[in-house]
Every structure is written in C-alpha cells, then in structure tokens.
C-alpha cells in the first residue's frame, strides 16, 4: 500500500513510518522542510514538503495514496484554536479526495476522561472531550458520510528513549528545577501509557484491518499510578519523590497540574480483540528508569 503520512518526522509519525515500511508499505511523508525529511529518505521513504495548512499539497499527497495516516498536530498550546481548525480542514480535505472509495484514513486524537471512569473505544466525542481539537469528531463525520475513516487515540504518555516533548520530559524538567519529583495526595490516580513502537503497530493494523467509523486505543498500560511514574522520574534524576497537598499542585506543576491530578484509565480490550494487537515493549516505569531517559 502507498501511504501518505503526515507528521512523518514527529515522535509518533517517525515510528509509524518505520513500522509501515518494515511491513512492506511505501511511505510518502509530509514534512515542513527538506532537512526534516532526511531520516525518512534514508529509511527508504519519499518526502513531500508542506504543512497542514497547505491544502493543495495535502490533496496531491492524498490523490496518489492508497491510504492516509494523519499524525501531525502543532505543539503550540497558545494557538490551540487555530491549530484545531487547521487540523479539521486537513481531515476534511482528505475526505474529499477519498470520497467514493474504500481507501482508509487513520486520524490521531487523544482522550481526557474528566469523570475518572475508564475510557472505552466505543466512547464518542462530547462524552469527555474538553479541548477545541476536533480530529476525531471530523473523522467520525466522514465515516457517517461513507468514507473509510477511523481514529487512533493515544494516551497522554507515548514514551520511549529520546523522548523530548511529551509529559515525562516536562515532568522531569519540573523535578529537576524544583529538586523534587512530586505527586498529589496518594498519587493513586491512573495514567494510561504506551511505548511509541507499540503505538506505531496500532496505526499499521488500523490501516490494514480497521473498520470504518471505529476508534482504537494505542494503550499498552490501561492505568499506571501517577506516584509510580513520579518515583521513577525521581530515581532517574536522583531527586526525592514525595506527596504534595492538592492546594500545592498548581504552584509546583504550573499548567501541568490538571494532568498530574487527572485520573484517566483507558481500555484496550476492543483494540486487542479486533486488530489482533498486543503490546511488546517495556512499560513506562521501566522505560523511564533506563539510564539517560530524562537527562
């Protein structure tokens, strides 16, 4: 299959590119500049230069593809509204190109289950979505129109060596600055997690086997106590780990506080059953404890 992959040089996208090519697919990766595509070229992929706002470029990449895997999304939280609108327009564009065909579109999103209940693959946006990002809403709308779109939801921690922009590096930066790796209360709130290589396999399987209008959870560990993650970061950095009172969380963690205290377990039962996926990589605690992870 010839696959058009957005975010091909990103943390998740680069792993997806390797997974797809290892499985025999060819990859055309969207990157913002030529030098950002060097790794993909070296691995045997093809590079298309452009951004998510370049709709003509997206149309060209999609028109020549047998399938699309969409992993790109901006990192500037201060522009979340504009980024969400750009993302939705890109997904709509893919849908326009693929309309009337059975070619699959795999869209990326996440989850923040504010109720503390376990997030299920059958959940749909509006039950727990708290941000302007409308990736999965747009994908499900395409599916209702008969377009073969489905969604891969990633947990808040997609971990792995050389991780630079995820929650673990951000938490490690706070711990390094404060000299303390903290958790709130007993730290028993649960975080779902997945290794990036296991997540990449979910994308490939969703592309190859996924059904129209379904959501799949790239979740290896359905819920890891946050205290265990904080303690692993502390051991890695050589700083103590201890509890904070809830009233201290915002002053210590800043904007991360809402994530630190959130209890958000997520199921992977349907994903395992329907895609035949099972995680094979190391869990988040063991990964974070590897020498050099948070240095």
UniProtKB/TrEMBL annotation:
Q: Which residues form the NAD-dependent epimerase/dehydratase domain?
A: 3-73
This protein's GO CC annotations? cytoplasm
Q: Superkingdom, according to UniProt?
A: Bacteria
Q: State the InterPro entries in the record.
A: Epimerase_deHydtase, NAD(P)-bd_dom_sf, NAD(P)-dependent_oxidoreduct
What CDD domains does this protein's entry cite?
SDR_a7
Could you cite one Gene Ontology molecular function of this protein?
A: aldehyde dehydrogenase (NAD+) activity
Q: Name one Pfam family in it.
A: Epimerase
Q: What is this protein called?
A: SDR family oxidoreductase
